[in-house]
Amino acid sequence: AQTVTQSQPEMSVQEAETVTLSCTYDTSENNYYLFWYKQPPSRQMILVIRQEAYKQQNATENRFSVNFQKAAKSFSLKISDSQLGDTAMYFCAFSFNQGGKLIFGQGTELSVKP
Amino acid sequence: GAGVSQSPSNKVTEKGKDVELRCDPISGHTALYWYRQSLGQGLEFLIYFQGNSAPDKSGLPSDRFSAERTGGSVSTLTIQRTQQEDSAVYLCASSPRGRFTDTQYFGPGTRLTVL
Q1: Which letter, b or e, does each residue of A6-22 get, where b requires 16 or more Cβ atoms within 10 Å of its Cβ?
Q2: DSSP label at A113?
Q3: What are the chain A neighbours of B108 within 8 Å (beta carbons)?
Q4: Least C-beta-crowded within 10 Å: which of A28, A32, A65, B62?
Q5: Which of 1-30 (A) contact B at CB < 8 A?
Q6: Contact A43 B48 (CB under 8 A)
Q7: Which residues does chain B have within 8 Å of residue A93's beta carbon, measured at their own beta carbons?
Q8: What stretches of chain A adopt beta strand conformation (E)?
């Protein structure tokens, strides 16, 4: 079975500080993609960052970066210079070669405090 | 260009009634997905359409749930004889080719409340 686990239901960080959200997953697949999505109160799910399992280099998108440890099946998200607009629910997800349906973790609710 | 749109934004219904939820994917996207987001179950896959292929219905929770996609574009998710446990946010997403390498683009969801 394919599963995704986010062990931190809630986190908070001060504005301008750095925070890391954890994600582990379990799969027997060799080729898959990993994603972090952000869901603000508006409910719109927005892609934050994505990582191909075959690439060793960690993906980065501006203030967002990942620490991908394939052997440990770990895919954490680091947010640098946190901004108030980063306040949202963050979901870790992965897809594999079965139509690309996403399997999501339970989410981490991040609050950025001024 | 326009993103994924869903209607209605909110729907309140009485137990036992049927409801229809609509999704308009991004133009040109061949794949369309429905997910359900509920407090108890988190985000779960429901059904997936890709072009003219038979849909993957493996995530539908019961035979009260069905979906269709007309003309390879708009999709309707139908829930018959709604139950209180059907209360959730129903999210639709589309992707260019339905490959696992594609990014899925989500709509704003429909919040369904069954009284």
Answers
A1: bebeeeebeeeeebebb
A2: E
A3: 42-44
A4: A28
A5: none
A6: no
A7: 43
A8: 3-5, 10-14, 19-21, 24-26, 32-39, 46-52, 60-61, 64-69, 74-79, 88-96, 103-104, 108-113
Whether residue B100 lies within 8 A of chain A, CB to CB, comes out as: yes
Q: What is the pLDDT of residues B4-39, one digit of tens each?
A: 999 999 999 999 999 999 999 999 999 999 999 998
Q: Least CB-CB distance to A101: which of B48, B105, B107?
A: B48
The CA distance from A111 to A13, in Å, is: 6
Report how far residue B39's alpha carbon sits from residue B34's, in angstroms, rounded to the nearest whole number: 17
CB B45 within 8 A of CB B106: no
Q: Mean pLDDT, chain B, as a whole number?
A: 94
Report the residue of chain A nearest B107, measured CA to CA: A44
Span B87-102, mean pLDDT? 92
Listed residue (A4, A92, A43, A101) closest to B47, CA to CA: A101
Tokens of A95: 């897809």
**Nearest-by-Cβ selection for B106 from A44, A97, A99:** A44
Q: What is the pLDDT of residue B19?
A: 98
